[in-house]
Amino acid sequence: MSRWKPDAEGRLIKAAITLFDERGYEQTTVAQIADAAGLTKRTFFRYFSDKREVLFNGSGELEHRWLEAVAAAPVDASPLAVALAGLDPVAEMFDERHPFARLRAGIVDANPELQERELIKLQNLAAAIKAALIDRGISRNAAILAAQTGVTVFQVAFARWVEQDDPAAFRRLMDESLEELRSVTAT
Amino acid sequence: MSRWKPDAEGRLIKAAITLFDERGYEQTTVAQIADAAGLTKRTFFRYFSDKREVLFNGSGELEHRWLEAVAAAPVDASPLAVALAGLDPVAEMFDERHPFARLRAGIVDANPELQERELIKLQNLAAAIKAALIDRGISRNAAILAAQTGVTVFQVAFARWVEQDDPAAFRRLMDESLEELRSVTAT
DNA sequence: ACCTCCACGGCACGTGGTGTCATCAACTAC
DNA sequence: GTAGTTGATGACACCACGTGCCGTGGAGGT
Asked: Is B100 helix (H, G, I), strand (E, B) or coil?
């Protein structure tokens, strides 16, 4: 028999989300999370660099998928089209996580610290996309703006997807947001 | 003779920036800042809600100026034009603060915590602009995208302004960024 | 002469986050 | 099967952030 129960990280995430949802983020202590997962505070910080990070487990996969799609985009595509190539695999990734995303969004929306973390994750994503665009020979200026615009479209569409009921609507909402952005910037 | 030296807040800000620049943000303690300003830790937290906030003194004025300009924009202006109306008074505000902005940008760039705070300030600004646009009768969707786009243009132009040498170039850099954004989204 | 105000000091406390060492099942080597 | 090694976790001490609470004493009014 093994010395410890398996999947310590998963247990911590599950315990954290449950407690954040029940009592709120600030009212929940790291020690309480660790305790609920049958672990200690010290172990929590071995898996997550800080208390917020336990809610941002999926951000690595998001960035990974997005960058893969960017790398696979046609060579003759426009900067914005390349940046937006990430939207397809990302939409696919979210289709099955609608209930979880809602729960998590409720927690994040209720706490400024978590919103800050969410924003810097998005900025890191934009920076990575920008670097990929520059690698493709796109100018620095166009790369920044295309990457930032792509992430903005994602951000807006994500917010809409969370607050409506159709889990499969993500891709459509992204297209709509992009179209609205074009119409706004055209004037 | 008065019991305390005047301008406690200003002394705290000055001491903080000096110490952050010399030793780095994380290596500087709130107690050290307060001590350098001839005050105590407790008093620091009466002026600033947390350690980061001492670097974000100007954000209130920035938002105020921007929103004033939005309110004063012509009734028939497009959503994006209204959102961008804030760029003029804001550019004017920054002309005289180029050296300070550089010093501050160096500190912020060296620390993720501070970048998070900067991002949420920008998001709050975008949210305020969005609300102002909605008040003017602009649709929710267009308001979000116009506000977010306006802030993105500001953000990009600000970064360029800090890294180049002409303190008066802000307005021009904003126009260039906007033009590049139009060209990126048009394709 | 008295009173009220209020900016600040002082102190205790909870929590986040880290460095360091101990523990002990599982795995490896022979 | 015995010995050594590895690696996830516990245990503990510690520091800095941030807050609640009360004390203090000059400024300014009556």
From this structure: helix
Q: Are A12 and A54 in contact (CB under 8 A)?
A: yes
SS3 of residue B110 by DSSP: coil
pLDDT in tens, A3-35: 999 999 999 999 999 999 999 999 999 999 999
* Separation in Å: C22 C1' and B154 CA: 54
Q: Contact, B70 vs B61, CB < 8 A?
A: no
Look up tokens 């505070």; give the residue: A41
Nucleotides of D under 7 A from a protein CB: 7-13, 16-21, 25-27
**Residue carrying the six token digits 């989300």:** A17
Indicate the pTM of the whole model.
Answer: 0.96
The residue of chain A nearest to residue B79, with distances taken between CA atoms, is A184
Measured CA to CA, the distance from residue B128 to residue B82 in angstroms comes to 13
Q: Which residue, among A46, A49, A57, has the nearest Cα to A14 in the 3D structure?
A: A57
